[in-house]
Amino acid sequence: MEIHTNTSTSPSWFALQTRYRYEERIASELQAKGFESYLPTLREIHQWKDRKKVLDVPAFGGYLFARFEPSLQNRVRVLETAGVVKLLGHHGQPEPVPENEISSLRLALSSGAECDRHPCVEVGTPVKVRSGMLAGLEGRVVRIANHVKILVNVSSVCQAIAVEVHLDDIDLLEANDVTPATLVN
């Protein structure tokens, strides 16, 4: 019996579903196994009766990303990691996460700009930030509570990060008749 595997030898990013609150443990264990991992985190203020504390929490609870060559051996090593539930993909095959989604996610979360969780959206005009601390960020423009934000979708986990931007700092990715000023009306 022949097993068909992806013959691509270049490392790609893959989304992993994890057990609840195992994300940091799994990221560390994957690093120890020699895999590059990325656990996107958001800074949140948690309040108790007697105090407030700023915490870094996973941006997508129950998910993290790992970069590896998609050989059967590597997939098995990743799946054998305690707490990994599954590799996300279609029809039993892991699906790589586009490099631009990971780089835009990293840029948005490390920029210092306020970021929030947001449901994944497929509508909106695709744009790229041309200047400022978010230069190079790609996403889709939306208006949320009178603020212009760019949604950085990570379709493999069907979630997004919303980051606030100025209209003057964005360019359209596709040529059409829409100008930045009309994107949010």
- From the spread of the alpha carbons, the general shape counts as globular
| Mean model confidence by pLDDT | 86
**What integer value in Å does the Rg equal?**
18 Å
Which series of helices and strands comes N to C?
Answer: EHEEEEHEEEEHEEEEEE
Spatial arrangement of strands, main beta sheet: 10-14-13-12-11-15
Structure write-up:
- There is one protein chain.
- The protein has 185 residues and is an alpha+beta fold.
- The chain folds into 2 domains: 12-97, Alpha-Beta Plaits (2-Layer Sandwich); 99-182, no CATH class.
- 16% of the residues lie in helices and 40% in strands.
- The chain contains 3 helices and 15 strands.
- Strands 10-14-13-12-11-15 form a 6-stranded antiparallel sheet, covered by helices on one side. Strands 1, 2, 5, 6 and 9 form a 5-stranded antiparallel sheet that branches.
- Strand 13 and strand 14 form a beta hairpin.
- The longest helix is centred in the middle third of the chain and has 12 residues, at 99-110.
- The protein is globular.
- 27% of the residues are buried.
- Residues 1-7 and 175-185 have low confidence and may be disordered.
Topology, pairings included?
Blueprint: E1 12-18, H1 23-32, E2 36-38, E3 41-47, E4 52-58, E5 63-68, H2 72-79, E6 84-87, E7 89-90, E8 93-94, E9 96-97, H3 99-110, E10 115-119, E11 125-129, E12 138-144, E13 147-154, E14 159-164, E15 170-172
Antiparallel strand pairs: 1-5, 1-6, 1-9, 2-5, 3-4, 7-8, 10-14, 11-12, 11-15, 12-13, 13-14
